Structure formats: C-alpha cells, structure tokens
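Supplementary Methods. Inverse-folding protocol.

Structures were first reduced to a discrete structure-token string of length 111. This string, shown here, constituted the complete conditioning input.
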C-alpha cells in the first residue's frame, strides 16, 4: 500500500521510502544523479526516459525539502552495504586472479 504525499508525483511505499514514477524509482536515486553527478532535470530525463520532466522536478523538490533525512538514510545504507561486503564469504578479486594464474589452460575436446 502506498501513500500519496503533498508532492503531486511522489508517493511513499509501504516502508515509507519516497518514490516516483510507474516503476517506483526512489527519490534518493534521482537525487544522487542530480547532486553527485551534476545531472540537470533534462539529463535525468535522458537517463530515465520513463520519468516525465514533471515527475523529476517533483522528486527533486521533495528531496530538497527532506534532504537531511534522505541523505542520512543513504549514508546508513552505504554503511550497511560496506559491512555486508566485508562479511562476504566469497573469494576476493586477488584470490580469483591467483587461481587463474595457477590453473593450467583447459584442453579443447578436439585436442
């Protein structure tokens, strides 16, 4: 169940995450493109053609009115992602490269 906000095209999903558009892109995703990559609303539209310019402007207005909260949520997500990556039990890139360098080449079936 989603909840409409006072911003025409922005709604909150069941977890309270602000989203926009028929594919429910997060406002934080659009804000990252705008703030960190310097993309204008036109550039965001080019990157995400399924969003109308009005939807993008509405999402950016929502972001700037709630910037501290959204930035804090993104920072917390980044910390969680880093900790999960460190806990990963898979081999590191260096370990995979070592395996490749010590593995003899395979022979094809025709040899």
């Amino acid at each position: 169940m989603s909840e409409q906000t006072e911003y025409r095209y922005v709604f909150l999903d069941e977890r309270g995450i602000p989203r926009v558009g028929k594919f429910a892109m997060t406002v934080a995703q659009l804000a990252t493109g705008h703030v960190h990559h310097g993309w204008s609303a036109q550039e965001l539209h080019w990157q995400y053609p399924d969003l109308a310019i009005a939807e993008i402007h509405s999402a950016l207005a929502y972001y700037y009115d709630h910037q501290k909260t959204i930035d804090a949520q993104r920072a917390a997500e980044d910390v969680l992602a880093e900790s999960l990556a460190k806990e990963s039990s898979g081999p590191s890139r260096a370990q995979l490269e070592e395996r490749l360098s010590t593995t003899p080449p395979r022979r094809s079936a025709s040899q």
